[in-house]
Structure formats: C-alpha cells, structure tokens
Amino acid sequence: MSNKVGVIGMAAPAVASAATLLLLSLATPASAKLSTTYYRETCPKAEQIVSDVVTGKQISTPTTAAGTLRLFFHDCFVGGCDASMLISTNAFNRAERDADDNISLPGDAFDTVTRAKTALELQCPGVVSCADVLALATRDLLLMLGGPFYTVRLGRRDALSSTAATVPGKLPSPNMTMDQLIDVFAKNKMTVQDMVALSGAHTVGFSHCNQFASRIFRYNGTGGHDPTMNSKYAEELQRACANYEEDPTIAAFNDVMTPGKFDNMYYQNVLRGLGLLSSDAALAADKRTRPLVELYAANQTAFFSDFTRAMEKLSLVGVKTGRKGEIRRRCDEFNSLSSSSI
C-alpha cells in the first residue's frame, strides 16, 4: 500500500498528495489521533489536576473508585468512551444515564468527574474533555486500590448525543448466558480473554441484592440457592438480602474476602463458589473461560498484565475526535441544547 502511494505521489505531486492525505485521514481510526502527550502544550498539568482531585475524593469516600470504574465501563460499552453517560436528562431528552441498566450507577462517580472537570476549567478552560477526565480518573483511582498502572491516551472529544433508547442490549448483564456475554464484548472488538480479565474488576465494589436474588432465593423454582454457590456464603447472603424487595438499596460486596483491594481474589472466590453474580459463576463453569479464571486465580501478575492490556483497548472503543465531538464546558450538559436531539 505504501508503494502505491509513493508512485501516485511522483506522478502528480500536488493533486495526488492532497487526495492521498484525504484518503488516509478518512481511513485512520479516531483512536490513532490520541496521544499520551495530547495536553502537553494546552494544559500541561491536566493529569496532575485530575489525580489530585480523585485522590482527595477517594480518601473521603472509599466507594468512589469502584463506582467510577463501573461508570467508565458503562460509558464505553454504549457508543464508545465519549462521556455520553454523563449527560443529564432534560425536558427534551431522556439521557443514557436514566436508562434502566444505568439507574444504579453511583452518584459518587459522577461527582468525581464533575470535581475534576471544574478544577481543570479553572486552570485550562475549554481544553480537556469530560471523556478524557473519566478515563484518567478511572486509571488513577484503580492505582489507589492497588491496581496496575496502564497508559491512557488522550484527545477524546465528548459525544454530541445521549439517549436512553440506545442503551438496551449494549451492556453485559449478570444474568446473561456466556454466549450472550461473549457477544456483547465482541461487538466492542473485545476477545474472550479481554472479557475474563475485565471481569476481574468485580474484585472491588458491590452489587444490589436484586441482581443476584435469583441465585439465593427460590433458585430455578426450588426453595434453596444455586447449588454451585458455597452454602455458608449463600446463607449469609439470604440473611443480608432478606428485605431487599422492601429496601432495594441493600447490597453485598462483589468480593467477600478483600472488597477494598484490587487484586486477583475475585478469581479465587469464583473457583470456591464465592462468586456473587450468575455471570461470575458462569466464568468458572464454561470451558472457554475457566482456564483463564484458573490462571488469574493462581497468578496475579498474569491478571494485571492482561487487565492492563484490556483496559487500554477498552479505553479506545468508539472514541470521538474532531468534529464528531466537542469539549463540553460542563460534563452533564451539551454546549448547545440542540445537540441532545442529534
């Protein structure tokens, strides 16, 4: 391909070079325009500002990191990593964050991005996108929990639309079959290995009882729990979630052993029947995924290595650059009201 471009260039330098550049720009994926030094000239302290803000937030509110990681996943899986999940619903538009699958996203996560964006606007107004803020905040918060460092390329622009109607079917669900889960990840060009590695994010955070009630109450029409679960664990969950229908806020840690630490304990739990969600148990049961679960349970270095690679890959899904996006002044609203109906 490079030889053809060179030949054309010699035959008609002015015309062909312009045409070639146009074709190359059209063929180049948006992610190729991202760079680790994107804000070096325009906002050199951008990464430090985000880090300082999220560090303070995590110290004051320890649930911030897990919530922000979940928000990042949801944002990237619905239309790409473009901060569309941060938009608030208004009189003209019901936004993504108000779709049924996103109602439980924690306010602490949104607040973290808002605080970081506000600090950046004071230092470098109109320069750093909300999408980049979310990507950086997620990485920095995971580091605070003991997770691995990974590279975040910058230069994303913020989405020009966000509608709840685009959400159904885009996000992995705890009650999906393994085939369905693999398909959801594949639509975002993520492999089975990526999926299992990213599932390790369940080593932190919590899930509400209604997300796993079918495993601990009246499993498959019986009076008991899912037999693949550790019995004592299931009984403790039954007690903890006894009133979940009256109080939907009741939740349990995803990782019962080290809930506040980003490590490989999640995989060890899954192999011992201590996985909280149906999707967790499915990873241990399916022949396509169990070998990876066993690998990560035995080798945290391998888990961190594959998780790092998967997060870098995920952070580039569906990114917007140039005129396909904007730099929002506020993360919860478009710069122009008309954008919400695009």
Explain this structure.
Mean pLDDT is 90; it is low at 1-27. The protein is mostly helical. It is globular, with a radius of gyration of 22 Å. Helix 1 runs antiparallel to helix 2 (13-27), helix 3 runs antiparallel to helix 5 (107-123) and helix 3 (46-60) crosses helix 6. The two termini are 37 Å apart. It has helices at 2-11, 13-27, 46-60, 64-77, 107-123, 130-144, 178-186, 192-199, 213-216, 231-240, 265-271, 278-285, 290-298, 300-314, and strands spanning 206-208, 251-253. A two-stranded antiparallel sheet has the order 1-2.
Structural class: mainly alpha
Task: From the alpha carbons, calculate the radius of gyration and give it in angstroms.
Answer: 22 Å
What is the string of helix and strand elements? Answer: HHHHHHHHEHHEHHHH
Number of helices: 14
Strand content: under 5%
